[in-house]
Amino acid sequence: MIQRIDDLSQYHFRGQHDDEKIISIIHRHWFDITVHYIFIAIIAIAALSSLFFVDLIERALNLSHTMLFMLLANSIIITILWLYGFLLWIDYWLDVWIVTDQRVVNIEQKGLFSRYVSELHFHTVQDITSKVQGIIPTILNYGDVEVQTAAENERFLFRRVPNPYAVKAMLLEYQRKAYQESMKR
Amino acid sequence: MVTIFFLIGVLMYVILAFVIVYHLHTYTINKKLARRTIVFFGIVTVLLIVIQLVLFIRVKNIMSETERDTHVNVNTDTFEAF
């Protein structure tokens, strides 16, 4: 989601300059993470619904204390799903594009032990393209924003962000401001 | 043996939970939200692990009781055979 400016006072990132103001925080679109959570929910429902068939299993296999065994198995499955769900959430939450009045910082979290931080200064921006592809992205209005720069790392990608047209417009606005400031100097 | 495997599993959960909390605390850009999330995550994780431990202990007791009963039955049968 794109955070509004009045919510941003409590945000701070490593390497933020003293005179640097956060304009916007952009995470991936919620649908990107929801797909994974649907999968988790299906497994959890399947595991929990197995408790309704305890009597059947008990009679079929001629076992006793099946309920207790099933509860233990279910609690193990639920704990694993809980931790996996949290890992997914961390991957989503720590994957962020921070737009400040000076630059864009991309923090990309890949799993638990892999993290990339890159930044883009507005004066190096040459071209910005927004791309919405597919039925669901069109309905939910999310897509990619690609920034072409003059820097060494030529391509800067906002992956599956909500409202890519607004993101593009915002970046263009700050690029224009940076250009005007550089012309004044 | 089963107990050792189970305890290794629980240890894995605990290590993973600590890594998750460490990441949230260190790399977050919103400390307030991270703190709340850590508390929520911690409470639920501890609760799940406690439930699992209690269930495991009960299952283990039942298993050892069943084993003991089977053992007693075998001995009685053997005695009767003589």
Structure report:
- The complex is a heterodimer of chains A (185) and B (82).
- Chain A has 185 residues and is an alpha+beta fold.
- Chain A folds into 2 domains: 3-8 and 21-28 and 97-184, PH-domain like (Roll), CATH 2.30.29; 34-90.
- Chain A is built from 5 helices and 7 strands; from the N terminus they run E-H-H-H-E-E-E-E-H-E-E-H.
- Chain A has a 4-stranded antiparallel beta sheet with strand order 1-2-3-4. In chain A, strands 5-6-7 form a 3-stranded antiparallel beta sheet.
- In chain A, a hairpin with a 2-residue loop joins strand 2 and strand 3 (103-109).
- Chain A is elongated and about 85 Å long.
- In chain B, helix 1 (2-27) runs antiparallel to helix 2 (31-81).
- The longest helix of chain B is centred in the last third of the chain and has 51 residues, at 31-81.
- Chain B is elongated, with a radius of gyration of 22 Å.
- The model of chain B has no long low-confidence stretch (mean pLDDT 84).
- Chain B is mostly helical.
- The interface between A and B is medium-sized, with 27 and 27 residues.
Can you describe this structure in just a few lines?
The complex is a heterodimer of chains A (185) and B (82). By secondary structure, chain A is of the alpha+beta class.
Which keywords apply here?
heterodimer, A: 185 residues, alpha+beta, PH-domain like, 2 domains, 4-stranded antiparallel β-sheet, 3-stranded antiparallel β-sheet, 7 strands, 45% helix, elongated, B: 82 residues, mainly alpha, 94% helix, 0% strand
Order of strands across the widest beta sheet of chain A? 1-2-3-4
Helix and strand content put the structural class of chain A at: alpha+beta
CATH level 1 class label of the largest domain in chain A:
Mainly Beta
Low-confidence stretches of chain B: none
Tell me the layout of helices and strands.
The complex is a heterodimer of chains A (185) and B (82).
Chain A: E1 22-27, H1 30-49, H2 54-61, H3 66-93, E2 96-100, E3 103-109, E4 115-121, E5 125-131, H4 135-140, E6 142-149, E7 155-162, H5 164-184
Antiparallel strand pairs in A: 1-2, 2-3, 3-4, 5-6, 6-7
Helix pairs in contact in A: 1-3
Chain B: H1 2-27, H2 31-81
Helix pairs in contact in B: 1-2
